[in-house]
Specification:
The chain is α+β, with helices and mostly antiparallel strands and 430 residues long. The chain folds into 2 domains: 207 residues, D-Maltodextrin-Binding Protein, domain 2; 189 residues, Periplasmic binding protein-like II (D-Maltodextrin-Binding Protein, domain 2, 3-Layer(aba) Sandwich), CATH 3.40.190.10. The chain has a 6-stranded mixed sheet, sandwiched between helices. Helix 1 links the parallel strand 1 and strand 2. The radius of gyration is 22 Å and the shape is globular. The protein starts with 40 loop residues before the first strand and ends with a helix.
Amino acid sequence: MPTSRRTFAAAAVAALVLPLSACGSGNDDSGSSDASGKVEGDITFQTWNLKANFKPYFDGLIADFEKKYPGTHVKWIDQPAEGYADKISADAAGGTLPDVVNVSPDLVAPLAKAGLALDLDKAAAKYKKEYLAGAWASHQIPGMTGTYAFPWYLNTGPLFYNKSLFKQAGLDAGSPPRTYDELFADALQMAKKSDGKVATLANVPTIEDFGRYGVALMNKEGTAFTFNDSKGVQLLTKYKELYDAKALDPQALTATPESSGKKFLTEAVAMNPGSALDLGNFKKQAPNLYKNIGITDQITSTGHVNMYVMGVMVNSKTKHTPASVAFAHYVTDAEHQMSFAKKVAIFPSTAGSLDDPYFTKQDGTDETRVRIAAAKSLKTAVNYTPVLFSEQMKTALRNEVAKALQGKESPRSALDNAVKQCNTLLAQQG
């Protein structure tokens, strides 16, 4: 997974639309939910664009596992980021899904519904206490009982801001916005003082932004989306005001995390979300920006920051359930999550790991400051993106948001339409 991917695990993940035929994929009698037998056999392990940067780590991890469990052999497959969801969908439909698969919550949902993801509450309940409760729950599906992947690494990050641009706008660079009201007011002042040349934000609001703002995204039953409530309309109305004033970058309608990051690097945008991983990039690619970098907390109305989660799923149709479960647990246990976290700016999902001195002891560097702040916030962080919010739904919301910002629809009509489309798609998921 290239380090340019926003907050490592945070890039938009394409949620696959699994063909109904997948319910019958593989040989139904070949799988077993019993993980108590002897750990042996040949299994396949699929990751998501990790080989380029972390081959030695995974080679060593696999070798250690095979040494611990003689008679096992793990074949490692690494797929590119582009088209990963489509690849999983094709494998699921064709009965060729690997035994152990690197997934995100929205990739698990259709696989679980198709009966292809092993329920770990049944097959691996003894391991549940090893993980943070919120992380374990992240791969649970509304309307279903069970947990369908081991939690792996987590990520979150601060807001970075350009102190120089804040000063030029007459704002206090030592006191960045901490509430939405302060953010919107500062953004409007920045646009006015720069004559529309400097935007504060570079991205339109996504589902997680509505969640952070305190919007109720779904009903309690998880059967319908509800982000068109008065609070949701209020947020989109504010963004429309920013867009009209050029306080929201004019190219935000087509922006990606990478393009937004470049705008921040070139000092055309004053604030951008990120992670400790980005500080090294700033230092190398934009020394002038790095010299003026400010670091502040994510802005929320809920008191809980957004968390991104990756998981490791076991194929319910595997012929070697004990080995597959043992390996998925081995990859995600406290020891191996900790060693992986020290190689890249991610955070372990295992209980107690975030209390390690690596995540609590300051050394005076910005990188450590960001890491410690993020680790602390993760203890109460929330994955705001609903597990059932598919890529098609993200597109529907984005399109309606764009219409509202361009004045083609009112914020209320836009969100009503987005919710209607998303609920139709939700019903089709079955």
